[in-house]
Please model this.
Amino acid sequence: MLDNINNIEVLFVEDDKIAAFIGEELLKNTGFLVDTVTRAEDAIELFKAKPYAIIFMDIELPGMSGSLCAREIRSIEKREHRIPSLIFALTAHTSQANRDHCFEMGMTEVIEKPLNDKKISMAIQMLSEVKKDNQRLSFTNLTNERIEVKELMKLTNNDTQQVKRLIEEFSNFLEKMKKELEDEIKREDKKEFIHSIHTLAATASYIHAPNLCKLTKYIESEEMKSSLQELMPVYTQIVGEIKRIQQTKFDNAILESK
Model:
C-alpha cells in the first residue's frame, strides 16, 4: 500500500447530490485531496488544469456521458504526454457488455455503485502498484553532464570549432527526432517510435550524451514487454533531457577547460 496518500489528488464525478456528498466524505476521510463535480464537461476542464492520480467517474451523467469523458481524458493524456490517471467507472450496471464498453473508452476498472471504503481501498492498492511501476521507469541518478565534451575533444584532437559544429548538428538532429517521436506517439505507432528511439540511442552514443544513452537504452530493453503508454514516463524524461542539451551553452571557454 501507499506510504502517504495525504497529498494525492482525486477527481470525483457524480451528479447525484447525496452520492456525491457521501462519496466525497469517504474519500476525504481516507486522506485524499478531492475535487467533486457533477458534469463531465467540468471534469474535463479541471483535468486540463492539473493531473489527478485517481478519477472516480459516474457513467450516467447529464450531457456528456462518463465514458465519453474518460475517452477525452485519455486523449488529453496522450496529447500532453501525461502519466495516465486511474479512471474507475461507477455504475449500477456491471454486465459484461457494459464493462467491455467502459474498457474500450479508456476506463481502468469498473466499480459497482455505491462507492465505499472497501472499493476505495482497492483503488489505493491499484495506485500503489502503478506507482511502483513508474518508479521502475524513473531515473534519479542521471548525470549533470549533458554531453561528455572531454571525449569529443579527444576524438577531434582538441579542435574546439569542430566540437562546436558536432554539438550544433546534434542539437538540430535532436529537434528533428523530438518532432518525429511526438508524431509517432500521436499516431500510436509503437513500431516507428521504437525505430526512432534506436536511431536516437545510436547517435547519442556517438556524441557521448550519457543521459540520453541511458534513457533510450532502457526503452530498448523494455520495448517487448511494455506498451507505448507505459513507456511515456521515460519518454517524458527524454524530451526534458533534449531540452536541457539544447539550452546548454558550449562556448570556447567551456570546451577548452575540458
In short: The CA atoms of residues 194 and 224 lie 10 Å apart. DSSP finds eleven helices and five strands in the chain.
